[in-house]
Design brief:
homodimer, alpha+beta, Butyryl-Coa Dehydrogenase, subunit A, domain 1, Butyryl-CoA Dehydrogenase, subunit A, domain 2, two-stranded antiparallel ribbon, 18 helices, 11 strands, 57% helix, globular
Chain lengths: 589, 589
């Protein structure tokens, strides 16, 4: 049976030492976050370890029951959702005006990570509700907000995103669902949607559907798409539930993983809905949510990697097979634990270098989301948002690619047992796989980085990374204890700059030359970002070392592993990138 | 629904142009193979496409039924097995003395690949029978051979390998199953085995269990293990079935994939068996089979990659999403097929560069197996065996790692549909995963390459690769048309030599320094082997080009893709390898 223990010490490290929270304690919510961090982390850990995690394998095995438009969640999910709401978790970062607690994203991120580690199928429903909250918060009219948001914030209702149609996945410009005005300010929505996560379930009394649809005479493509809200049950004045709206779940998909998360085929038959934001500006409204959603999907990769890593490490310490190459470590046992073997250690350290690096990066990105929303200085807000814009495709794609890779490493560490359902780690591989696809495939993330983020404002987004890195290198370049990190960091930053120049130049001349290397460029960028993150963590570890040697020695060892065994990946990627478009375009299919 | 069409043209290319069959036509069986190749490939293709493939998804969905010691295979499997035997496929490479057809492995390999593509769960049973055949052929007494082999060759009976026990997976020295002599030449075998593929099923009337067990007073570890044959039903003089032996399937595992292949928990309770080979030499006997089994497992990776590639390519040509970056390719359609997009082309070409390279390598290895068995010149036999020894861990590990990677790329090309069971490609990911683990984990393959193969005979095995590569480079170095392949090949061969010297030197000083880089070394070796394979294929394509321009243009384009986008991986790997053991050993767990 798999195990999960929330990595609280590492969350504390990032919150207290890695993020400049103290230096920004005047930002709204930050001093609360610092004060409340420990009890919040402990309460969330307890919910995730004791309530959500124990029903994760149950959910995978039982799956969902679909019958005549209704979806029944697996044993324990309803009770767990109740406990989740009673803990106040749905409202954690929401605006106090709607019953929220107003806490910052950088403290919410560990909670999200823990929920993803413990039970991703469960976590998707509140995760999507939070996306719906954001859409209504940013684009809903005052009336809509008043009517729909309080029960979304409390968790009594959930919210879902309804984008995809059979012919319109990556290409949302092909959306066909229609909306017509009724005349009383509401709209009739008709059409079919697929792949609607949590589109129907039995966890909440109402479900708010946020739907992309076209108004009559709307321009073709993405410029003619509007966003609507259609509730499963109508909501009367005062907030009580009215009649059922004419929308229906026609079935659920049978999937590789996340089998306890309903992926619904939805049909809207003149369903009554309300316009959110301006007509034909639905894509823009959707994208403000999408960035948050993409970071959340990256955290799914991280969360699954963390639980996979914990189990692989436990197993590697317990499983006895063969003797260490340099002689028996435990001569009294029948064999040595496999953690003695260098190749197993390589796998375990690959997992750890990823999870701890990803955690620091995701929390740093969330911290910048907070600054961009909460800081009072417009320049600080913009700089923070620039960093978030640049990191979003990296967090989404690299963290989910590596989430799958790390889950697969856990299976490899387990050997044959990894392939057997009872042991639980193969589920992480299956659950992790979709995160590389949804909320924009990782190929789309690479194109976003290459064509939108790279060139924006003559490199303004890029500078939000290169400037702090340069400053960090300058700060530490005369510290001999940091030389082992600073020298390779500077070298690989140089490679990344070469690659960036190639991509920017190639992209202008022939976009195929840039697009052909986009995935490798995103991977290379991610490795250099992680090198910076690990060098920063190493600098802290050197400084704080004597206060807790065991913890900081582990950080330093993991940083060294990353620099020795993972970071060298950039040099090969640089060659693949600069090969340009010909090797993929000069082929007839 | 997924599709599969046997890649007959590519098999023919390898058989007729890539392998030096014609130059060796005097070797027993080779001229038969050349003559019969086309009808054999067509007959096997028809069986795989029309009989095995249509029940692959059925098998995955239905799975197996276990009840009171019996295992029922899914709908259609019994009929398919009957058709398989009626086609004479079990006896294809077997010795005519036992009813076999005596055909070479290099022609059998395409058949194995097709069966793996079409239905791996099905293919495992005959695959394991062939392993049992090899064990009895090489190590069985004349009496045993006469009694058991003809029905194994005809497929009426099947055979299985019983190695693993709960405490003894990678480390077979920990095997505890016991065997005691009865006095009449037979033995009583008692103990439990796990992970026994096809240990029990309803496809054949008898199952021959080849079991590793210990005789009384046997030395500890692998030097005290003997190999026994225990049939499910006793076999009377004359070959008819007698009473049931005291062995029993106690249950089957619930697995991530290969759900139609029974993975059995077996219990032997004084089961009557016969010694195969010498007492305490069971590991040696097992290893003669294991090499063949490892090549076969590599082919599983290839077969799944091929069917995944075919489906991804079809989907990419049909699925319409977004416009090509350089302008609409099909302005009359609602969008362009996704094969227009560079990142999708990168994925498709990654898949093709692997499958076609792996096919050529696997068939070349099989051809050398044939030479090592069938050639009359002892030096040729030894050289061929050296090549097989060196390539076995590469074929096993690289082809299965990439089998998983390519199956995952197919899911990525499909996007959301890839995650849905109906579309069939996610099954390839699940089915492929175990091949990286069984028959020696890929980490074990890397150690085999590093510690056994690298140093053998002062580099004798290594020379079986480097000598032909050097000869190939010399042959083509003045051909300007080949310069684009020969120059990078020579450069990367140089890198591999650097890595090999590091590994050999490090391994002597401190084995941890070599073991820490073993997985990267195997990967790097594989890339350089593939570079050689692709350069050879390119040379043929240039020569034969005008006879079939479309086919050979595709070969050249794929070779160019491999050199531009895949081969550069070696430079990063070289850095990781030469980082040595410290980054993984200097960590406390």
């Amino acid at each position: 049976m798999p195990v999960y223990k929330a990595p609280i010490r590492d969350f504390q490290f990032v919150l207290r030492e890695f993020l400049p929270l103290a230096a920004n304690k005047d930002v709204a919510g930050f001093s609360d976050a610092m004060e409340m961090a420990d009890p919040v982390l402990e309460a969330a850990a307890s919910l995730c370890e004791d309530v959500l995690f124990p029903i994760n394998q149950v959910g995978d095995k039982e799956g969902l029951k679909y019958s005549d438009g209704t979806v029944t969640t697996p044993t324990g999910f309803k009770e767990a959702y109740k406990a989740y709401c009673e803990g106040g978790w749905p409202s954690f970062t929401c605006d106090p005006a709607f019953g929220g607690q107003g806490l910052p994203e950088c403290l919410n991120l560990p909670i999200m990570e823990m929920a993803c580690s413990a039970n991703l199928s469960f976590g998707l429903t509140p995760g999507l509700s939070h996306g719906a909250y954001n859409a209504l918060f940013l684009h809903g009219s005052e009336e809509i907000q008043k009517r729909f948001m309080p029960k979304l914030v409390s968790g009594e209702w959930s919210g879902v995103m309804c984008l995809t149609e059979p012919q319109a996945g990556t290409d949302l410009g092909l959306v066909r669902t229609k909306a017509e005005t009724v005349g009383d300010g509401s709209y009739k929505i008709s059409g079919g949607k697929i792949f609607i996560s949590s589109g129907e379930h039995d966890l909440t009394e109402n479900i708010l559907h946020l739907i992309l649809a076209r108004l009559p005479g709307a321009p073709k493509g993405t410029k003619g798409i509007s966003l609507f809200l259609a509730p499963k049950f109508h909501v009367k004045e005062g907030g009580s539930l009215g009649e059922r709206n004419s929308l229906r779940c026609e079935g659920i998909e049978h999937k590789m993983g996340l089998t306890a998360s309903p992926t619904c085929v939805m049909h809207y038959d003149n369903a009554i809905g309300y316009l959110i934001g301006e007509p034909n500006k639905g894509m823009k409204a959707m994208f403000t949510m999408m960035n948050a959603a993409r970071i959340y999907v990256g955290v799914q990769g991280l969360g699954l990697a963390e639980v996979a890593y914990q189990n692989a490490l436990n197993y590697a310490k317990e499983r006895l097979q063969s003797r260490a190459l340099t002689g028996a470590k435990f001569p009294d046992k029948q064999a040595d634990p496999i953690i003695s073997h260098p190749d197993v250690r390589r796998m375990i350290l690959t997992m750890r270098a990823f999870t701890e690096g990803a955690r620091a990066l995701a929390m740093l990105t969330a911290f910048n989301v907070d600054l961009s929303h909460r800081h009072t200085d417009p320049q600080v807000k913009q700089d923070a948002d620039d960093f978030v814009q640049l990191m979003t495709p990296i967090v989404k794609a690299y963290l989910t690619d590596m989430g799958s890779a790390v889950a697969n490493l856990a299976v490899q560490v387990y050997g044959g047992y990894g392939f057997i359902k009872d042991y639980g780690v193969e589920q992480y591989v299956r659950d992790a796989r979709i995160a590389e696809i949804y909320e924009g495939t990782n190929g789309i993330q690479a194109l976003d980085l290459t064509f939108r983020k790279l060139s924006f404002g003559s490199g303004r987004y890029l500078r939000s990374f290169f400037h702090p890195v340069d400053a960090f290198i300058t700060e530490h370049k005369d510290n001999p204890a940091m030389a082992e990190f600073i020298k390779p960091l500077a070298k690989h930053v140089g490679y990344l700059q070469q690659a960036s120049i190639f991509m920017a130049t190639a992209g202008l001349k022939n976009p195929d030359d840039a697009a052909a290397g986009a995935t490798e460029y995103l991977r290379m960028f991610s490795l250099v970002v992680f090198a910076w993150i690990w060098a920063k963590q190493a600098a802290i570890a050197l400084k704080s070392h004597d206060s807790e040697p065991e913890f900081y020695d582990a950080k330093l060892a993991t940083a060294r592993f990353f620099f020795a065994k993972v970071l060298p990946g950039t040099t090969s990627l640089l060659q693949s990138i600069t090969a340009g478009g010909k090797p993929v375009m000069n082929v007839a299919f």
